[in-house]
Amino acid sequence: IGDVTLTMWSPSGLRVGLVGVSKSFIPDAGAIWLCATDDIYQCQVAFLRKSKAFLPLLQARYLALFNYVDARNTVHIRWLKWMGFTFINEHHHFGAEKRLFYEFVRI
């Protein structure tokens, strides 16, 4: 579990995801992450609106947030762009499966 972990709930009471920030190996930088189910589509507009509201809480302890995202994960990539993250690098053989990942940051 990270420094901050938030649970996302749908209006019907389903847990649709988790989002958080963990301390990283880079001083003053946190590793942001998101894990969501397909049920998040039931409340996608509310999720997008509230995302911007909780971003200051996630970034409060850090000068920068960063991480890597699988290039196939277009939903999360769109969310990261919506949240103001910048994509700074491509890693063509990343992880155990040696897939394309994008590195992103928000300062």
How would you portray this structure in words?
The protein has 107 residues and is α+β, with helices and mostly antiparallel strands. It has 2 helices and 6 strands. It has helices at 44-59, 74-82, and strands at residues 4-9, 15-23, 29-36, 64-70, 86-94, 99-106. A 6-stranded mixed beta sheet has the order 1-2-3-4-6-5, covered by helices on one side. The longest helix has 16 residues, at 44-59. It starts with a strand and ends with a strand. 15% of the residues are buried. The mean pLDDT is 91.
Topology (elements, then pairings):
Blueprint: E1 4-9, E2 15-23, E3 29-36, H1 44-59, E4 64-70, H2 74-82, E5 86-94, E6 99-106
* Mean pLDDT rating: 91
Structural classification: alpha+beta
Compute the CA-based radius of gyration. 14 Å
What does the overall shape look like?
globular
Low-pLDDT regions: none
**Main β-sheet description:** 6 strands, mixed
Order of helices and strands: EEEHEHEE
Summarize the amount of helix as a percent range: 10-25%
Sheet-strand content, in percent, reads: 35-45%
Distance between the termini: 23 Å
What's the number of helices?
A: 2
Any key phrases for this structure?
single chain, 107 residues, alpha+beta, 2 helices, 6 strands, 44% strand, globular
Short description:
The protein has 107 residues and is of the alpha+beta class.
